[in-house]
Amino acid sequence: MAIGISAPQHLDPISGIRLGTTAAGIRYAGRQDLTLIALEAGTAVAGVFTRNRFRAAPVIVAERHLARGTVQALLINTGNANAGTGAEGMAAAEESCRIVAEALGCRPEEVLPFSTGVIGEVAPLAERIGAALPACAARLRPDAWIDAATAIMTTDTVAKGCSVRVALDGVHFTVTGIAKGSGMIRPDMATMLAYIATDAPLQGLALERCLHDAVERSFNRITVDGDTSTNDACILMATGKAAMDPIRTPQDPAYGRVAAAVEAVALQLAQAIVRDGEGATKFIPITVTGGRDPQECLKVAYRMAHSPLIKTAFFASDPNWGRLLAAIGAAGIDDLNVEKVQIWLGELRIVRDGARDPDYRETAGQAVMAATEIPIRVDLGRGTAEERIWTCDLSHDYVRINADYRS
Amino acid sequence: MAIGISAPQHLDPISGIRLGTTAAGIRYAGRQDLTLIALEAGTAVAGVFTRNRFRAAPVIVAERHLARGTVQALLINTGNANAGTGAEGMAAAEESCRIVAEALGCRPEEVLPFSTGVIGEVAPLAERIGAALPACAARLRPDAWIDAATAIMTTDTVAKGCSVRVALDGVHFTVTGIAKGSGMIRPDMATMLAYIATDAPLQGLALERCLHDAVERSFNRITVDGDTSTNDACILMATGKAAMDPIRTPQDPAYGRVAAAVEAVALQLAQAIVRDGEGATKFIPITVTGGRDPQECLKVAYRMAHSPLIKTAFFASDPNWGRLLAAIGAAGIDDLNVEKVQIWLGELRIVRDGARDPDYRETAGQAVMAATEIPIRVDLGRGTAEERIWTCDLSHDYVRINADYRS
To answer: Which residues bind substrate (chains A, B) (predicted)?
Structure first.
């Protein structure tokens, strides 16, 4: 049911990175649920993690290990988020790293663990990882990105991945990313995991800035249901295998091109998450212009994106602009002059100067709403700031999926 | 489907107030959709109105008329909210007041108009009101509160009303209230209309304070879907017919008893709105204790109440405490120490010190969740502040109702 996307047919390998997957039986038997990513020595790694105050054990461990510097491997399991599991969960996350370290001949602190799935269940996680890891390690190969994109899925209906290759001054570099997540999605990251790798030689500050800017403009601009998970993370890995000079700061000449490629991959992955939002049938880009500052544009955009009344109207293909107008009015801009507000559905203006556009006809609105992609644009008539976010509708299936998830 | 309530069997008349209803055919033929409330001279009236920046025409007119002082009548129509209708809508609201004034022999500025229903449709509202108003005025009588409670319903499945009679120093006073609203409900009022009347002689500051305090502790503590409407209002009318000394300030001796009765009625009505929330199958009181201040308690409570993941879990009777924990962690308390957080479902502790309570058993949680009323209590372990709100679950029917509302 993902809107306008299908699983990737090809993802470019990144020199210096190998991936392996296996079925560890963590929650379901016979399902690929364990992914190992092995990095060649010298790969630079940066990460951003959930801002939820409840952080899953693997998030705490991954962040701590990342702060120490060198990373040799990433381990991702689905089926169990290992969140809200207390000391037992911390022990399981640490033990998982030890198991990987033993298989790959590195130190446990050089392994980053990631878990996604049901929160708060204590399960024999480390034991099952221990039993399955040798098979996973034995299968490591550079061209398994699609396998990995598939193995990290939970309620996702489609694997999400994207590659960009760029020629720069006669050499090529590549960026490949995979992601999972379709519910509990909102800014500040979500139950979302994303792994982006490049052979471009990003290092230090350049690597950090590149990741943060890309996340801010992609994963932090999407929302499915307004919830924020305890487990999400986005990791950027740079192997430096491309024949380029090291990129150490954002001022280095090649930085802009590499950062643009990373951002393009992040945006593709972020939008794919919304297009595969739980129960989603419509993909809705929301643009708010004419704000005094970006914050008020985002307030209006998210107020619309989080309104169940608007989301159900989109599900019903109902151009119920009154609900849009009510959400804008409730967005918390105290001195909003409603007579300066304009709203467009696609190219069709439906609200002019704060009231129904006299030229608007319901049949025209319905024609726009019948599409599976429905851009909304709001102009606040107050300034020059502009922001854009992406969301989806709220359908019967959203309720079904989330009411049944644990059964 | 309203949870644990049925339509009122009896509502006490308030001396000095008469009500009449009729079918004006505003949106549907043959449905009681017009209500007139006539007040005897000398009735004191106070009102609070939506904080949405988009305010429906009748809200603008009602607030303006109320500011002039004397009120002789209230007119309420369903079927059309007369919101987002620009100058034409303003003219219709003004014309409605003129029609009532003519029928009752008062001035148009002494009439408060109220509309609820679909936003943004321009319809021959004033014409239909004009045709039906004489019949409505001819039927005015003191014991028509239940008729009025029924005539103001839109997507409500049950009429909402409540009376309280209090004996005070040998005299009685009565408070009777009616309300409508079942979607687009959240603090700052909603697509909610409430009319509360008393024969107690509240005046001036005492009347204003009584209304504001009652609303703050009732209608501003409920949420169904987090949306705020363009039309909501709560009106308090005091006829002064009870044999009591005038109550002019909150310091007057009888103020406390009268204010408590008004608040009790407001709370009953507010909870009835949630119990009849669109598609609701569970009534969920949320108490947050141990906050540093009331604001952070409310932040946590509303974050839970607005989480679609939590609301669908309640619909499924699934004690998915991981979703509660994730919502608390994302509520925006930056220095929350999660290890001090406790969560109870009813009397059952499910989270102890930030993780699953070791004594908690899923079967016990499911037993609590099987009920139609499920109190949640969260202790933040940071202070002594405490707040309570009321919400409901998110069901298949919510989506159905709001996807189909205009069809």
So the answer is: 154, 180, 191, 278, 402, 407
Chain B residues with beta carbon closer than 8 angstroms to that of A329: 52-55, 228, 230
Please report, in range form, the residues annotated as the binding site of B. 154, 180, 191, 278, 402, 407
Can you give the pLDDT at residue A187?
A: 46
pLDDT for B154-200, tens place per residue? 888 999 999 999 998 899 999 999 999 876 554 444 478 999 999 99
Distance to chain A for B392, nearest Cα, Å? 14
Distance CA B394, CA B391 (A): 10
A51 close to A236: Cβ distance less than 8 angstroms: no
Average pLDDT over residues B361-371: 90
If asked whether residues B226 and B309 sit together in one domain, one would say no
Task: Determine the Cα–Cα distance for residues B239 and A367; give it in Å rounded to an integer.
Answer: 53
Residue-number span of the structural domain to which B194 is assigned: 17-275
Q: Which residues contact B203 (CB under 8 A, 6 or more apart)?
A: B44, B238, B240, B246, B247, B248
Residue A398 — pLDDT band, cuts 50, 70, 90?
confident
Inform me whether the C-beta atom of residue A325 falls under 8 Å from chain B C-beta atoms: yes
User: B301 and B269 in one domain?
Assistant: no
Structure tokens at A250: 């954002």
Q: What percentage of chain B's residues is helix, strand, coil (to nearest 5)?
A: 35, 25, 40
Residues 184-203, chain B: which have Cβ within 8 Å of A? 184, 188
For residue A113, CA distances in Å to A94, A404, B276 come to 8, 28, 45
**Domain identity same for A79 and A122:** yes
**Of A259, A275, A291, which residue sits at a domain end?**
A275
Q: What is the pLDDT of residue A307?
A: 87
Q: Which residues of A touch B51 (CB under 8 A)?
A: 330
Residue in B378, B261, B321, B317 with CA at minimum distance from that of residue A122: B321
Within this chain, do residues A254 and A293 fall inside the same structural domain, yes or no? Answer: no
List chain A residues with CB under 8 Å of B396: 396, 399-400
pLDDT at A189: 45
A52 lies in some domain: yes
If you average pLDDT over every residue of chain A, what do you get?
A: 91
- Residue, of B330 and B177, whose pLDDT is higher: B177
Residues of B in contact with A227 (CB under 8 A): 307-309, 323, 326-327, 330
Q: Which residue has the tokens 């049901």?
A: A118
Give a yes or no: residue A116 inside a domain.
yes
Indicate if A239 and A291 belong to the same structural domain. Answer: no
For B183, nearest residue in chain A (alpha carbons): A309
DSSP state at residue B349? E
Closest Cα partner for A378 from A309, A323, A335, A308? A323
Please indicate whether, in this complex, the C-beta atoms of A54 and B119 are within 8 angstroms of each other.
no
Give the Cα-Cα-Cα angle B402, A327, B83 (nearest 5 degrees).
80
Tens of pLDDT, residue by residue over B385-405, are 999 999 998 888 878 877 765
> Does residue B115 carry a pLDDT above 50?
yes
Test B119 with A325 for CB contact under 8 angstroms: yes
The alpha-carbon gap from A11 to the nearest alpha carbon of chain B, in Å, equals 33
Q: Is A400 on the interface with B (CB under 8 A)?
A: yes
pLDDT tens figures, A267-307: 999 999 999 988 889 999 999 999 999 999 999 999 999 88
Query: Which element (helix H / strand E) includes B194?
Result: strand B193-198
Whether the per-residue pLDDT at B216 is higher than 50: the answer is: yes
> Percentage of residues in chain B with pLDDT exceeding 90?
71
Q: How many residues does chain A have?
A: 407
Q: Average the pLDDT over each of A142-146, A190-194, A354-358 and give the range with the smallest value.
A: A190-194
Partner residue opposite A230 with nearest CB, options B118, B225, B329: B329
Nearest-by-Cβ selection for B308 from A225, A321, A355:
A225
High-pLDDT (> 70) share of chain B, %: 95
